[in-house]
Amino acid sequence: MTTLVVDTSVLVGWFHDPADADARILRDAHMAGVVNAQVLDLGMYELGNLLVQDLRWPAPKVADQLDDLLAICGPALVLTPGWLRDAATIAGLHQLSFYDAAWVAAAENLGAALVSTNPNLLDVRLAESPGDVVRRLGLR
Q1: Helix or strand or coil: residue 128?
Q2: In angstroms, rounded to a whole number, what is the distance separating the alpha carbons of residues 8 and 130?
Q3: For the segment 39-59, what is each residue's pLDDT rounded down to a tens digit?
Q4: How far is Cα of residue 43 from the mean position of the Cα atoms in its chain?
């Protein structure tokens, strides 16, 4: 089974961007057991922040959304000390934020593809877009 690390930009597509059909295809493939989608605990904070700050959701609705994400993906991954070191190196090498580099480090350490819509990661080929992954895995 293919393991994917799915960053927050894709999680937004899972739940909140009706135009992002490929993100939902990946979510559905995970739920069907075709792929194994993993998220970092960082994604919980980033998604929660987006819901609170940008969408102005009330606290109970935010908590419910995060519960849904955990129910779909299982426990979020926590970066190990080694992964944190890798993230620092990746951030420096590619002029990325530490946040973005953390996703890359996790994916690399898991031997998984990082799925993102973040142009900072896509431009330096450290991640694949949802559409590219859907096509590569023949999910459409």
Answers
A1: strand
A2: 12
A3: 999 999 999 999 999 999 999
A4: 7
